[in-house]
Write a structure and sequence with these properties.
The complex is a heterodimer of chains A (about 100) and B (about 200).
Chain A lengths: L1 E4 L2 H9 L6 E2 L4 E5 H23 L30 H10 L3
Chain B lengths: L6 E5 L1 H9 L5 H15 L3 E6 H17 L9 H27 L3 E4 L5 H14 L3 E7 L6 E8 L3 H12 L4 E4 L8 H4 L4 E4 L1
Chain lengths: ~100, ~200
Protein backbone atom coordinates (compact mmCIF):
# COMPACT_ATOMS: atom_id res chain seq x y z
CA UNK A 1 0.00 0.00 0.00
CA UNK A 2 1.40 3.39 -0.94
CA UNK A 3 0.74 6.92 0.14
CA UNK A 4 2.05 10.14 -1.34
CA UNK A 5 3.90 12.60 0.85
CA UNK A 6 4.42 16.09 -0.51
CA UNK A 7 5.97 17.68 2.54
CA UNK A 8 9.71 17.68 3.00
CA UNK A 9 9.49 16.37 6.58
CA UNK A 10 8.02 13.09 5.34
CA UNK A 11 10.65 12.87 2.65
CA UNK A 12 13.33 13.46 5.22
CA UNK A 13 11.80 10.77 7.44
CA UNK A 14 11.69 8.31 4.57
CA UNK A 15 15.27 9.08 3.64
CA UNK A 16 16.52 8.85 7.22
CA UNK A 17 14.89 5.49 7.82
CA UNK A 18 15.62 3.97 4.42
CA UNK A 19 11.95 3.54 3.70
CA UNK A 20 11.02 2.87 0.11
CA UNK A 21 10.41 6.15 -1.66
CA UNK A 22 10.72 7.71 -5.06
CA UNK A 23 11.92 11.24 -5.63
CA UNK A 24 10.50 13.45 -8.30
CA UNK A 25 12.67 16.52 -7.87
CA UNK A 26 10.33 18.73 -9.92
CA UNK A 27 7.36 18.69 -7.60
CA UNK A 28 8.84 17.21 -4.42
CA UNK A 29 6.49 14.26 -4.47
CA UNK A 30 7.60 11.14 -2.69
CA UNK A 31 6.07 7.71 -2.52
CA UNK A 32 6.50 5.99 0.83
CA UNK A 33 5.62 2.40 1.54
CA UNK A 34 3.25 3.03 4.42
CA UNK A 35 3.65 -0.46 5.84
CA UNK A 36 7.40 -0.09 6.05
CA UNK A 37 7.04 3.42 7.44
CA UNK A 38 4.72 2.25 10.21
CA UNK A 39 7.03 -0.64 11.02
CA UNK A 40 9.98 1.75 11.18
CA UNK A 41 8.12 4.04 13.58
CA UNK A 42 7.14 1.07 15.79
CA UNK A 43 10.73 -0.07 15.78
CA UNK A 44 11.96 3.44 16.74
CA UNK A 45 9.55 3.48 19.70
CA UNK A 46 10.65 0.00 20.69
CA UNK A 47 14.35 1.02 20.55
CA UNK A 48 13.62 4.05 22.66
CA UNK A 49 11.75 1.90 25.24
CA UNK A 50 14.62 -0.59 25.24
CA UNK A 51 17.18 2.09 26.01
CA UNK A 52 14.96 3.65 28.70
CA UNK A 53 14.72 0.26 30.44
CA UNK A 54 18.48 -0.23 30.11
CA UNK A 55 19.11 3.17 31.67
CA UNK A 56 16.79 2.34 34.58
CA UNK A 57 18.86 -0.77 35.34
CA UNK A 58 22.24 0.87 34.77
CA UNK A 59 22.90 -0.95 31.51
CA UNK A 60 24.85 0.85 28.77
CA UNK A 61 23.02 2.25 25.76
CA UNK A 62 23.22 -0.08 22.75
CA UNK A 63 25.15 1.51 19.94
CA UNK A 64 25.23 -1.33 17.42
CA UNK A 65 22.74 -3.90 16.14
CA UNK A 66 23.16 -7.12 18.16
CA UNK A 67 22.78 -10.64 16.78
CA UNK A 68 19.18 -11.89 16.91
CA UNK A 69 20.36 -15.08 18.60
CA UNK A 70 21.27 -13.09 21.73
CA UNK A 71 17.90 -13.97 23.24
CA UNK A 72 18.95 -17.63 23.44
CA UNK A 73 21.44 -16.61 26.12
CA UNK A 74 18.61 -16.17 28.63
CA UNK A 75 17.33 -19.67 27.98
CA UNK A 76 17.69 -21.51 31.30
CA UNK A 77 19.33 -18.58 33.09
CA UNK A 78 17.08 -19.31 36.09
CA UNK A 79 17.12 -23.08 35.85
CA UNK A 80 17.72 -23.50 39.58
CA UNK A 81 14.51 -21.58 40.29
CA UNK A 82 12.26 -23.93 38.30
CA UNK A 83 9.80 -26.03 40.24
CA UNK A 84 6.80 -28.33 39.95
CA UNK A 85 4.37 -25.51 39.34
CA UNK A 86 3.33 -24.74 35.79
CA UNK A 87 4.54 -21.42 34.39
CA UNK A 88 0.91 -20.25 34.34
CA UNK A 89 0.52 -20.93 38.07
CA UNK A 90 3.85 -19.26 38.83
CA UNK A 91 2.73 -16.05 37.15
CA UNK A 92 -0.73 -16.18 38.74
CA UNK A 93 0.65 -16.83 42.24
CA UNK A 94 3.17 -14.06 41.75
CA UNK A 95 0.29 -11.67 40.96
CA UNK A 96 -1.50 -12.80 44.14
CA UNK A 97 1.63 -12.37 46.29
CA UNK A 98 1.83 -8.65 45.65
CA UNK A 99 0.34 -6.60 48.41
CA UNK B 1 1.80 -14.39 3.85
CA UNK B 2 3.57 -12.02 1.49
CA UNK B 3 7.30 -11.54 1.92
CA UNK B 4 6.83 -7.95 3.12
CA UNK B 5 4.24 -8.72 5.80
CA UNK B 6 5.40 -9.00 9.36
CA UNK B 7 4.04 -11.87 11.44
CA UNK B 8 3.67 -10.44 14.92
CA UNK B 9 3.29 -12.65 18.00
CA UNK B 10 2.54 -11.29 21.46
CA UNK B 11 4.34 -13.52 23.94
CA UNK B 12 2.67 -13.91 27.32
CA UNK B 13 4.76 -13.72 30.51
CA UNK B 14 4.27 -17.43 31.31
CA UNK B 15 6.13 -18.35 28.10
CA UNK B 16 9.00 -16.04 29.03
CA UNK B 17 9.16 -17.65 32.47
CA UNK B 18 9.24 -21.19 31.02
CA UNK B 19 12.00 -20.05 28.66
CA UNK B 20 14.26 -18.59 31.34
CA UNK B 21 13.78 -21.46 33.79
CA UNK B 22 13.49 -24.44 31.45
CA UNK B 23 11.02 -25.95 33.91
CA UNK B 24 11.49 -29.35 35.49
CA UNK B 25 8.99 -31.28 33.41
CA UNK B 26 10.33 -29.88 30.16
CA UNK B 27 7.08 -29.80 28.21
CA UNK B 28 6.43 -26.09 28.64
CA UNK B 29 10.06 -25.12 28.11
CA UNK B 30 10.19 -27.21 24.91
CA UNK B 31 7.20 -25.27 23.63
CA UNK B 32 8.69 -21.94 24.76
CA UNK B 33 11.96 -22.79 22.98
CA UNK B 34 10.08 -23.66 19.81
CA UNK B 35 8.08 -20.42 19.87
CA UNK B 36 11.21 -18.28 20.34
CA UNK B 37 13.32 -20.32 17.88
CA UNK B 38 10.63 -20.08 15.20
CA UNK B 39 10.59 -16.29 15.55
CA UNK B 40 14.38 -16.14 15.25
CA UNK B 41 14.38 -18.44 12.22
CA UNK B 42 11.58 -16.83 10.24
CA UNK B 43 12.72 -13.66 8.55
CA UNK B 44 9.43 -11.78 8.88
CA UNK B 45 8.47 -12.92 12.36
CA UNK B 46 8.62 -10.49 15.24
CA UNK B 47 7.90 -11.08 18.92
CA UNK B 48 5.92 -8.43 20.76
CA UNK B 49 6.21 -7.77 24.48
CA UNK B 50 4.44 -5.22 26.64
CA UNK B 51 5.66 -3.36 29.68
CA UNK B 52 3.01 -5.33 31.59
CA UNK B 53 4.63 -8.64 30.57
CA UNK B 54 8.10 -7.32 31.46
CA UNK B 55 6.82 -6.18 34.86
CA UNK B 56 5.37 -9.65 35.50
CA UNK B 57 8.65 -11.37 34.64
CA UNK B 58 10.58 -8.96 36.87
CA UNK B 59 8.08 -9.57 39.67
CA UNK B 60 8.30 -13.34 39.36
CA UNK B 61 12.12 -13.23 39.37
CA UNK B 62 12.05 -11.31 42.66
CA UNK B 63 9.55 -13.76 44.16
CA UNK B 64 11.33 -16.91 43.01
CA UNK B 65 14.79 -15.83 44.15
CA UNK B 66 13.49 -15.30 47.68
CA UNK B 67 11.10 -18.28 47.84
CA UNK B 68 13.62 -20.78 46.45
CA UNK B 69 16.41 -19.88 48.83
CA UNK B 70 16.91 -22.58 51.45
CA UNK B 71 16.43 -21.42 55.00
CA UNK B 72 19.77 -20.47 56.56
CA UNK B 73 18.60 -19.28 59.92
CA UNK B 74 17.54 -15.83 60.99
CA UNK B 75 17.31 -13.31 58.19
CA UNK B 76 20.10 -10.77 58.60
CA UNK B 77 21.30 -7.81 56.60
CA UNK B 78 23.94 -9.86 54.74
CA UNK B 79 21.46 -12.47 53.54
CA UNK B 80 18.90 -9.83 52.61
CA UNK B 81 21.52 -7.89 50.63
CA UNK B 82 22.63 -11.09 48.88
CA UNK B 83 19.08 -11.96 47.84
CA UNK B 84 18.37 -8.45 46.60
CA UNK B 85 21.59 -8.48 44.57
CA UNK B 86 20.86 -11.92 43.09
CA UNK B 87 17.37 -10.85 42.02
CA UNK B 88 18.69 -7.61 40.60
CA UNK B 89 21.43 -9.33 38.61
CA UNK B 90 18.93 -11.79 37.11
CA UNK B 91 16.54 -8.99 36.21
CA UNK B 92 19.41 -7.06 34.61
CA UNK B 93 20.41 -10.11 32.60
CA UNK B 94 16.84 -10.64 31.40
CA UNK B 95 16.46 -6.98 30.43
CA UNK B 96 19.91 -6.82 28.85
CA UNK B 97 19.14 -9.69 26.47
CA UNK B 98 15.54 -8.79 25.69
CA UNK B 99 16.39 -5.15 24.97
CA UNK B 100 19.26 -6.29 22.72
CA UNK B 101 16.74 -8.49 20.91
CA UNK B 102 14.59 -5.43 20.49
CA UNK B 103 17.44 -3.43 18.96
CA UNK B 104 18.09 -6.42 16.66
CA UNK B 105 14.48 -5.82 15.54
CA UNK B 106 13.19 -9.25 16.44
CA UNK B 107 11.28 -8.06 19.48
CA UNK B 108 9.04 -5.06 19.70
CA UNK B 109 8.56 -3.50 23.11
CA UNK B 110 5.10 -2.15 22.46
CA UNK B 111 4.17 1.16 24.03
CA UNK B 112 0.48 1.41 24.86
CA UNK B 113 -0.86 4.80 23.81
CA UNK B 114 -4.43 4.39 25.04
CA UNK B 115 -5.09 6.03 28.42
CA UNK B 116 -4.87 3.55 31.28
CA UNK B 117 -8.45 4.33 32.32
CA UNK B 118 -9.65 3.31 28.85
CA UNK B 119 -7.79 0.00 29.10
CA UNK B 120 -9.35 -0.63 32.49
CA UNK B 121 -12.85 0.31 31.34
CA UNK B 122 -12.56 -2.12 28.43
CA UNK B 123 -11.22 -4.73 30.86
CA UNK B 124 -14.34 -4.21 32.99
CA UNK B 125 -16.61 -4.64 29.97
CA UNK B 126 -14.97 -7.93 28.99
CA UNK B 127 -14.71 -9.21 32.56
CA UNK B 128 -18.39 -8.43 33.10
CA UNK B 129 -19.36 -10.43 30.01
CA UNK B 130 -17.38 -13.53 30.96
CA UNK B 131 -17.97 -15.59 34.07
CA UNK B 132 -15.58 -18.49 34.63
CA UNK B 133 -16.30 -21.82 36.26
CA UNK B 134 -17.03 -22.56 39.89
CA UNK B 135 -15.65 -25.97 40.75
CA UNK B 136 -15.29 -28.22 43.76
CA UNK B 137 -11.74 -28.85 44.96
CA UNK B 138 -10.24 -31.37 47.36
CA UNK B 139 -6.65 -30.11 47.56
CA UNK B 140 -5.16 -27.00 49.12
CA UNK B 141 -3.45 -24.71 46.58
CA UNK B 142 -0.77 -23.73 49.09
CA UNK B 143 0.20 -26.86 51.05
CA UNK B 144 -1.19 -29.40 48.55
CA UNK B 145 -2.82 -31.22 51.48
CA UNK B 146 -6.44 -32.34 51.68
CA UNK B 147 -8.88 -29.43 51.57
CA UNK B 148 -12.52 -29.64 50.60
CA UNK B 149 -13.94 -26.46 49.17
CA UNK B 150 -14.76 -24.53 46.02
CA UNK B 151 -12.73 -22.40 43.69
CA UNK B 152 -13.35 -19.97 40.89
CA UNK B 153 -11.51 -20.59 37.63
CA UNK B 154 -11.67 -18.03 34.92
CA UNK B 155 -9.79 -15.47 32.96
CA UNK B 156 -8.32 -12.83 35.26
CA UNK B 157 -8.15 -9.11 34.62
CA UNK B 158 -4.42 -9.17 33.85
CA UNK B 159 -5.05 -11.66 31.04
CA UNK B 160 -7.71 -9.35 29.60
CA UNK B 161 -5.25 -6.44 29.77
CA UNK B 162 -2.61 -8.50 27.93
CA UNK B 163 -5.16 -9.26 25.22
CA UNK B 164 -6.20 -5.60 24.93
CA UNK B 165 -2.54 -4.58 24.57
CA UNK B 166 -2.03 -7.29 21.94
CA UNK B 167 -5.04 -5.91 20.08
CA UNK B 168 -3.63 -2.36 20.12
CA UNK B 169 -0.25 -3.72 18.98
CA UNK B 170 -2.03 -5.25 15.97
CA UNK B 171 -0.49 -8.69 16.43
CA UNK B 172 -1.42 -11.74 14.41
CA UNK B 173 -1.15 -14.13 17.35
CA UNK B 174 -1.12 -14.14 21.12
CA UNK B 175 0.96 -17.07 22.41
CA UNK B 176 0.31 -18.36 25.94
CA UNK B 177 0.18 -21.48 28.10
CA UNK B 178 -2.83 -20.17 30.00
CA UNK B 179 -6.02 -22.08 29.15
CA UNK B 180 -8.03 -19.24 30.68
CA UNK B 181 -7.50 -17.38 27.39
CA UNK B 182 -9.93 -19.85 25.79
CA UNK B 183 -12.69 -17.62 27.10
CA UNK B 184 -11.21 -14.66 25.23
CA UNK B 185 -10.96 -16.32 21.82
CA UNK B 186 -14.32 -15.09 20.60
CA UNK B 187 -13.87 -11.60 22.02
CA UNK B 188 -10.66 -11.02 20.06
CA UNK B 189 -11.36 -13.30 17.08
CA UNK B 190 -11.51 -10.40 14.62
CA UNK B 191 -8.21 -8.93 15.81
CA UNK B 192 -5.84 -11.87 16.34
CA UNK B 193 -5.66 -15.60 16.98
CA UNK B 194 -5.03 -16.85 20.49
CA UNK B 195 -2.63 -19.81 20.44
CA UNK B 196 -2.69 -21.84 23.64
CA UNK B 197 0.22 -24.29 23.81
Amino acid sequence: MYTIHTDLASASYARKHDTIYQNNSHNHTFKVDITNEQETRKSDISHSSANELRKLYGLPRISHKPNVEVIKEIKGMMKEYADEESAVDVIKHSREDVY
Amino acid sequence: MSSNTQERTYIDSNIWFAYITQDKFGEESDQANKIIDDIIRQKNSVAVISHLAILEVVNVIRNKVVQKTKHRGQLDLNLETELRQTANELIKEFLDKTTKWSIAEKLEIFEVTKPLVEVWKNTFLIQNAILGQIIEVHKCKICKGVFNGYTYKGVDHYDIQHALIAQEAKVNFLATFDKGYNELRDVFRDSFEIKIY
